[in-house]
């Protein structure tokens, strides 16, 4: 794995780390504050497990709906908000809209900054060496860094987090044209007012004012990446580091956490896999409550083409009460155990699902809707292992055609197998843990202000 460091002359460089044996380290407190759906939270569970194995005291602070999942891993948990609030957010169809979705999410991020900061402050044990790990959208974690003097590692799960003028991510539907612009034009475009400031800014500024901390002028350029270091959890062959990335970036690989150890494979799914040919797995993510049309299209393709299919959704009301022979509906799928038995994966383009498909060597069809999904989908196409269909073009005819282009096609299968083997060689974690631990430098303050946000579950 590679870490991006300063060479002493102000230039960023990448240096290779050799592996080392995982062993007990000096005990420190580590606080992780993921935000989002399961695909955003599970990588932090993976990090938490690794750091606990090293002897650190690990606490995850995130939405209260993840309490059972995280408690099952044995990690300490602090729940934020209520289940009704979380359900209301993901029930809003705008959350998956190309433009309204980011606005909805960032307004929520801004409003929750103060309460999340209070939960972080409550979780800090006076006098303990403490490290924060958080996504760039956790502005509360950055506020805690500035207010409490705690080191912070920014954890970025997808290349779309890096607004490079060299390899520019696709930041929304129909924005692929930006990636083809001259660099000087892209630099101007990326420096224009960022909607993130308008949507999340008011809440962040209010939280900063309440703590007596100067608010960032521009959230992305001032606070999205931590001066203490970034951990990029995707391999270089998926997105290579660029000259204008921030300094102090350590790039590892995909986490590939699916909680298979805590959740048994459904018996009906195991029986289904054992009784026929390789199926196509269809999913639009754990937080999608508006997938009825997606699954109707998937079902029609299965019936019309004779393909076996697995329809995976945590909201089974999106599926017909009775499914035809050759189609199985499930609420939980352990991707790492099921995908190697599948002919293809059809999904929304979330980075977690994308990574699991790559690890299994399975061709993919992506229907990207919003957020990082269009960029992830484009990368699969460039790697030769996927096809992409925008929502407005996603129907039975186009999906059947896309599957015909990738299922059992020798060139696609060769590319998918090669990437799976390459990903299997990226799994060395020792250097990454060593790099994380090198950031544990500053002790927590001995006296902290009182507060009362968040619910801790030990």
- Oligomeric state as shown: single chain
Overall 3D geometry?
Answer: globular
Radius of gyration: 22 Å
State the secondary-structure class: alpha/beta
Query: Uncertain segments of ≥5 residues (pLDDT<50)?
Result: 1-24, 442-458
Largest sheet: 10 strands, mixed
Mean pLDDT: 87
**Beginning-to-end CA distance, first to last residue:** 33 Å
Helicity, in percent? Answer: 25-40%
Q: Number of helical segments?
A: 17
> How many strand elements?
16
Strand content: 5-15%
Strand order of the largest sheet: 2-1-9-8-7-6-3-4-5-16
Structure in words:
With 458 residues, this protein is of the alpha/beta class. The protein contains 17 helices and 16 strands. It has helices at 38-53, 67-72, 83-91, 100-111, 113-123, 139-148, 183-190, 195-211, 219-224, 267-274, 292-305, 335-338, 351-360, 373-382, 396-406, 410-424, 430-438, and strands at 2-6, 12-16, 29-32, 57-63, 76-80, 130-134, 152-156, 230-232, 249-251, 280-283, 309-312, 327-330, 344-347, 364-366, 386-388, 455-457. The chain has a ten-stranded mixed β-sheet, sandwiched between helices. Strand 3 (29-32), helix 1 and strand 4 form a beta-alpha-beta unit. The longest helix has 17 residues, at 195-211. The two termini are 33 Å apart. The model is unreliable at 1-24 and 442-458 (pLDDT under 50).
